[in-house]
Amino acid sequence: MVRPDVNRSSFDWRRRSMVERLARMGIRREEVLAAMNSVPRHLFVEEALRSRAYDDMSLPLGLGQTISQPYTVAVMTQLMLGKLPVAGFGRVLEIGTGCGYQTAVLQAAGLDQVYSVERLRPLHEKAKHHLRQAGLIGRIRMVCGDGYLGLPEVAPFDGILVTAAPAEVPLPLLQQLAVGGRMVIPLDEGGRQYLWLIEKTERGFHETCVQEARFVPLVNGT
């Protein structure tokens, strides 16, 4: 039988190795690397899969959903932050809480006003449980609802991060992005998915295709 302290040490070592790998893969922002190193990803996956928690792979959550691979979480966080100081960010909106891991990384990176929307009630409750376990739920505002609609009552947002792929960018999310804000979103373009960065300026939107991606679909409606 493995003693609990030995088990924690093993997870700590795997998490450090994961962060070193992310740095080699191009993750440069220290806040992102520090967040990935501090959040215990193994608490956000099914117990039977915890030995794979720090591998660079997505894992099933049930209900047809997945937890994104660590690199995807890190690169999306880094893209949303851009070169802006974390202290310069106001509200951040996450669409698709899932198990709560990406949510935890956003807060651990130093973002104090994180809002997260999840369509599926069982995942919404599970994410709250995971965040409590990790001691990170305190300042996160979690909502069970339709992510397509965003959260107009608390908009605008300096950052919007979408963790599921629609066929086109939901108009309400574009409307809720603040001038100077950045949205990171995967789009399904005829069966192939690409990760996009959308920046809102006073003159309109600037769109950049970043890389190929693989996400579950973003479903419109509760």
Which features does this protein show?
about 220 residues, alpha/beta, Rossmann fold, 6 helices, 9 strands, disordered N terminus, EC 2.1.1.77, PCMT
The CATH topology assignment is Rossmann fold
Write down how many β-strands occur, each being a DSSP E stretch of 2 or more residues: 9
- How much strand? 25-35%
Whole-number count of domains:
1
Function: Catalyzes the methyl esterification of L-isoaspartyl residues in peptides and proteins that result from spontaneous decomposition of normal L-aspartyl and L-asparaginyl residues. It plays a role in the repair and/or degradation of damaged proteins.
Catalytic activity: [protein]-L-isoaspartate + S-adenosyl-L-methionine = [protein]-L-isoaspartate alpha-methyl ester + S-adenosyl-L-homocysteine
Organism: Neisseria shayeganii 871
Keywords: Cytoplasm, Methyltransferase, S-adenosyl-L-methionine, Transferase
Would you give an account of this structure?
The chain has 222 residues and is α/β, with parallel strands linked by helices. It has a single domain (6-213), classed as Rossmann fold (3-Layer(aba) Sandwich), CATH 3.40.50.150. Helices cover 31% and strands 27% of the residues. The chain contains six helices and nine strands; from the N terminus they run ααββαβαβαββαβββ. The strands form two sheets. A seven-stranded mixed beta sheet has the order 5-4-3-6-7-8-9. It has a two-stranded antiparallel ribbon with strand order 1-2. The longest helix is centred in the N-terminal third of the chain and has 21 residues, at 4-24. The radius of gyration is 17 Å and the shape is globular. It starts with a helix and ends in a 9-residue tail after the last strand. The model is unreliable at 1-6 (pLDDT under 50). The active site is at residue 68. This is Protein-L-isoaspartate O-methyltransferase. Pfam families: PCMT. It catalyses: [protein]-L-isoaspartate + S-adenosyl-L-methionine = [protein]-L-isoaspartate alpha-methyl ester + S-adenosyl-L-homocysteine. One of its GO terms (molecular function) is protein-L-isoaspartate (D-aspartate) O-methyltransferase activity.
